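#help-structures
NK: newbie question, is this the right format to request a structure? protein is Large-conductance mechanosensitive channel
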Amino acid sequence: MLKGFKDFLLRGNVVDLAVAVVIGTAFVAIVTAFSDGVINPVLAVFGGSNDLGLGFQLVADKPATFIEIGPIITAVINFILIAAILYFVLVAPATMARKRYSPGTEKLTDNELLLQIRDLLAEQRGRADGQHNP
């Protein structure tokens, strides 16, 4: 039981996922700091004279009914920035490296794969019968 757990943990995609989570968390901290320092002040410019920020109030003179738009815009910008950073820093270079350094990366159709299997089986059958012609 412990051997199976160890094999699961040491499988390549589990380790890759753990690294991705750690790196993603680090990027979130960077992007959040950028949003708090740059994006939120820019959004506050569009909030006008309202002390509550960018948004609108459903019932006048009731601050509890204020719907904030600024945090939603900030969250969307954070998501786009994090996705772009992860894609251009991790995904795109890893994909290019995988294409460059892994042999036989071309994608075969089902028919091509079946033809290769058929040819290999015919070759093995010929060897088993002693009819292999070099």
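mod (FA): yep, format's fine, and the tokens are attached above. Helices lie at 2-10, 12-46, 70-101, 110-128.
NK: thank you!
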